[in-house]
Structure formats: C-alpha cells, structure tokens
Amino acid sequence: MDEFEPIYNQYFNLVYKYLLCLTNNHDLSEELTQETFYKAILKIHTFKGNSKITTWLCKIAQNLLFNHIRHNKKIQISNIEDFATLSTLENIKDIIILNEEKRKLYNEIAKLNKTTRLVILYRISGNLSFREIGDIFGKTETWARVTFYRGEKILKEGLL
Length: 160
Hints:
Rna Polymerase Sigma Factor, Chain: A, globular
C-alpha cells in the first residue's frame, strides 16, 4: 500500500483532468478519480507493464465512467464555467454570438478523427499538457503536440 502512494501523488491530477475532460463535472470527476485509484490498488498485481501506468489508470477511469453512466441514466453533465462567462457578458446579443461560435467550433471538432478529436478536447477542455495527453495515449509529448496542431489547422480551415 505504501509503495502505491508515489503513484497516487504523481498521477492523481492527470486522471482527474482526464475525467474532467470526459464529464465536465468536477464532483463526478473527483469521485471517479478516487475510485480509480482504489481499483488500481486492488488490481496492481494485474498490471504487467505492457503499457504506461498512465494508460492503465486512464483505462480504469474510463471504464468506471462508462459503468457510472450505464447505471445513472439521468446523469447531468454541466459546465459551471459557461454560467460564469454568461453572467459577465453585457447583453443577450453577446451571448448568442458566443454560443454560435462555440457551436461551430464543436461541430468542426466532431468532424475530426477520434484520436485528433480527443487530443483537441483534452487540451482545450481539460487543460492537459501535451505530456499528459501523450501519456494517456501511450505516445510521446511530441506526438500529442503534432496531433493537436494538425487538428488545429484543420479546424481553422473549416471555420473560415
């Protein structure tokens, strides 16, 4: 158990940010992150080292999220930051313009291939570093950076 503490300290934020990206819900992300590490402690003997520990942890987190969604059909995922932004805007016209721009951006993101789409969302929604994104995919930081910038270029072309 004591040997697992450095893993927890090193990767807690990464797993939390990963889940936050997927759920957009701070409380649910925190709860699932705790559960992820609990499951990881129970199953550490099954980790063979064929992948990075971050990939293994994120896979556990993803499975827990899918189970949670399957069992909680009424799950509400909200973005508190959107409400904060809306309250600072001066008028309804600004809100409409902002929402239209967001809708266009997310429509273009949805057109990207799955890997590029996830890299873009992890970066812009979850504020994950390129190193963290690379770890999630079991790739390098450079791979994540290149994938993000290629996706960004496609998005810019689609939004013009």
